Amino acid sequence: MVIELKKEVSQAQAAELGVQARCIVFEENGRSILVSASSVKELPEVLKPHTEAFFVTSSDIQLASKEYRKEKREIDLGFTKIGGKNNNTVMITGPCSVESLEQITQAAELCVERGIGILRAGCYKPRTSPYSFQGLGLEGLKLLALMREKYGLKVITEVRDASHVDDVIEYTDIIQIGAKAMYDQGILRRCGQVKKPVLLKRGFGTTLQEFVQAAEFILSGGNPNVVLCERGIRTFETKTRFTLDLCGVAYLKEYTNLPVVLDPSHAMGYAYGVPDLTRACMAMGIDGLLIETHPNPKVALSDASQQLDFNQFRALHESLGVIGKAIGYKLV
Ligand code: PEP
Ligand code: MN
């Protein structure tokens, strides 16, 4: 149950009343919200005089659910908004990893050329093998900060584990929590303590329920700015890297109030399929797209097979506007 206390209830008072619930969220507008387990269906008697409204939820998808808030959340990205009633499809692009000043500068210049506001690249890579390139770490974060300064771009990068979560929070505009880190409670809880937007990727072996419950950790920690990202789940199929769960995206749009970004690059795993898949995503009416691009994918230090070269990306980007237009969405 989600219980919105009356505005005049102070935070100190809310903290006392909070023993009746599991979590207390202090909203920036001064309102406090208590969240109990979804199995609680009756408002406790002692809370009645202090309660403005309460919402019974059918599962522990609560703050993220349409049962609580019907309207899609709107998140301010600085140069534009994602979610809400904007019908924006926000393009996020860049290489899988920051590799060098030259490479990330080329990627930033592609964003500028295409009028794209967000540059994405990883610095702490959650590789499957310890012998693969692990990312440039702090040096990479500094290069991204340089790109932000030089080109006025927003940057997004991922946090791999709790050892560097504070560095990522400090340097980036949008925090990405990757598929492998989605269950990391240290990361989820830390990201709940800040207000920067968080792009939470779905683990590839994760049900939709588990995925959105991971988002609940951030929301119930006090950060309302969560964006979900579907990036493919593991199925019996091996010809493609993962299977992009578009049915799941339809579910998230119907039942949750969070903006949804799609990542066809990691789902497909091969550049040849990324443009078609991206156009299919665009046609669903989604809040954003994450596409990996590299100045020379053949020599990329991670995810080489799936990154588009710049000409492939230009052609894809060019083709998306008309699809958005057909369904009332604007490519941003
Ligand atoms: C990435 O975004 O480069 C990445 C590692 O993705 P995922 O967490 O979805 O595997
Ligand atoms: Mn990648």
Summarize it.
This protein is α/β, with parallel strands linked by helices and 332 residues long. It has 10 helices and 15 strands.
Could you describe the 3D structure shown?
The protein is α/β, with parallel strands linked by helices and 332 residues long. The chain has two domains: 2-55; 74-331, Aldolase class I (TIM Barrel, Alpha-Beta Barrel), CATH 3.20.20.70. The protein is 32% helix and 19% strand. It has ten helices and 15 strands. It has helices at residues 11-17, 101-114, 138-151, 165-171, 185-192, 208-221, 246-255, 264-268, 274-283, 310-327, and strands at 2-5, 23-26, 32-35, 51-55, 74-76, 81-83, 88-94, 118-120, 154-159, 174-177, 198-201, 226-230, 260-262, 288-292, 330-331. It has an eight-stranded parallel β-barrel, surrounded by seven helices. A four-stranded antiparallel β-sheet has the order 2-3-1-4, with helices on both faces. A two-stranded antiparallel sheet has the order 5-6. Strand 8, helix 3 and strand 9 (154-159) form a beta-alpha-beta unit. Helix 5 crosses helix 6. It is globular. The mean pLDDT is 97.
